Amino acid sequence: MYVGRFVVVGPDVGAYRVSSRSFPNRKITTRKDALTVGPTDDAPETDNPYVAYNCLRVVETPAGEVAAFGNGSHVDPIAEKLERGYPARDALATSLLALDYEKDDYDTPRIAATIGTDGEALIATVRKDALVVETVEEPTLVATYETDAPESFEFEAASAEEAASEAYDLEFEHAVCAAGVARTDDGFETAIENGE
Questions:
Q1: How far, in Å, CA of 52 to CA of 172, rounded?
Q2: CA spacing 20 to 30 A to 27: which of 41, 50, 73, 103?
Q3: For 72-162, where are the E strands, in sequence order?
Q4: How would CATH label the architecture of 6-42+51-193?
C-alpha cells in the first residue's frame, strides 16, 4: 500500500519517512540545527517547492527541548513558535492552519509531530477538509494518503536509530529515506536512514 510521506510518534520516540513515486532521488542530511530532505546529486532538476525542506528540528523552548518533525516547510514555523514559548499544540495548529495543505495535484496534507522533554507528544495534520491536533499516549501514525487521520500504530523503536530504520523498513511502498528522534536522559538524539 502506498501511504506517501508519514510521521509516527509516541510518546518518547518518533520518525518521519519520505515515500515517493514522483521524486525518489532524495536523501536526508544533517545541517546545523536540522535534518533536511533534499535532492541527491543525480536527481533531475525540479522547481517543485515541496521536494526540499527541513524535516526535523530540535529546539530549546522556555519549558525545555522539543523535537518537531514533519513533511514540509511547516516544520520551521512550528520550531520557531516553540522557541518563542508557544505550547506545542498551538505551534502545530497555527503553523498548519497558516500554511494549509499543499496546493499540488493531490491536495497533499501537511503532517507533523512534536515530542517534548516534559513527556508530552502530539501529532497533527491539515487536510483539505480538516485540521487535527491530538495528544499521543501510544504510538500513532498519520500519512499524507490513505491514513490521513491519526491512528494507533505498532512501533517498537526505542532509540532514534531504531526509529529511522523501523520507519524506513515498514512495508509501505516506495521508501526513499527516514529520520528518527528519541528523548534520552541527555536530551534528544536523532538518526538518518537513507537506504544506502
A1: 21
A2: 103
A3: 110-116, 121-127, 130-135, 140-143, 151-152
A4: 4-Layer Sandwich (3.60)
